Amino acid sequence: MKILKVLPILTVLGLQSCFVQNARVITIKSNARGLDTSTFLYSNDSFTVQYNYYTDGLNLNMVIYNKLDKPLFIDWGQSFYIQGTSRYCDWTDSKTVQFNPDDQTETVEKTDRYSNIPPRTSITKSAYYNAIPANLIAIPMKFHFNRLKPTIKISHHLKSDSFKVYETDFTLANTPLIFRNYLTLSYDSKFNSQFYLDQQFWVSKVQDMDVNDYLDPQGEWINGDPYKSNNSFFIRYDPRDYYDPGNYIY
After folding, report:
1. Among 186, 192, 196, 208, which residue's beta carbon has the most beta carbons within 10 A?
2. Cα 188 vs. chain centroid, distance in angstroms?
3. H or E stretch including 211?
């Protein structure tokens, strides 16, 4: 391995011939009380929340199970994804109109603001925030590497040899992304007994690889080991868009 040390203009020319689109797998961590960090399942005496972040981009999928013998209510209009001082609501007061040209009819769909979870049942909630900050994508390929893993193998991949995965870890003090998931719940439909679940998460690990090493034989994202987990998501990017002379390792 060597660090490229040539003039910037020559480096750019080299990058355009050497680099292809990269895949970045991002692992999330939390110290939230009651959250199992191995499964990302939160549990208390009243309900459970199963978090699943494994998608392309920062999406949140939750399965909320009511343990009680009475209904549990959620106000999505007062539930948020929070990043810094910005918040993204889990519900919008809007409707979607779909027109069917065959029978000239319209179908109107509107998302409910409130969810009523009957006793011992569950609901699934999905939200796409599209709130990935630029500094998370712009981490240079050199990172501040504390480990280099050149021998990861994926058995069902077209390539028979191993490929490099560049990996670095972050703490809560130096992480490029901190966010919170905030839910407003109640034991009655009028929310006279409302309470809140406010949990903090942060990026704890980033893994980079050639995008072709993250695709299965059909060209789809790998939906399994070793990267799939409830506490990770992935993005694709072109490192040439975030070029910084001297920061690239070969």
Report:
1. 208
2. 32
3. none
Domain count, the chain: 1
Q: Which residues contact 189 (CB under 8 A, 6 or more apart)?
A: 71, 73, 114, 116
- Rounded Cα gap, residues 185 and 114, in angstroms: 10
**Are the beta carbons of 66 and 46 closer than 8 angstroms?**
yes
Residues in the chain: 250
Q: How does pLDDT run across 83-107, given as a tens digit for each residue? A: 888 888 877 776 666 666 666 666 6
Residue position matching structure tokens 């704890």: 204
Domain assignment of residue 167, yes or no? yes
Residue pair 60/129 in contact (Cβ under 8 Å)? The answer is yes
Nearest alpha-carbon partner for 127 in 70, 182, 89, 179: 89
- The whole-chain average pLDDT of the chain stands at 74
Structure tokens at 25: 């797998």
Q: Is residue 72 part of a domain?
A: yes
User: Amino acid letter at 127?
Assistant: A
Dihedrals φ, ψ of 101, to 5°?
A: -70, -20
Is residue 250 in a domain?
A: no
Reduced to 3 states (helix: H, G, I; strand: E, B; else coil), residue 240 is helix
- In the chain, the DSSP E strands lie at 22-29, 35-36, 41-43, 47-52, 59-66, 72-75, 80-83, 86-89, 95-100, 105-110, 114-117, 122-128, 147-152, 163-169, 178-186, 195-210, 232-237
- Asked if residue 102 is part of any domain, the answer here is yes
- Smallest CA-to-CA distance from 140 within 162, 164, 174, 168 is with 168
Q: Give the predicted TM-score (pTM) of the model.
A: 0.74
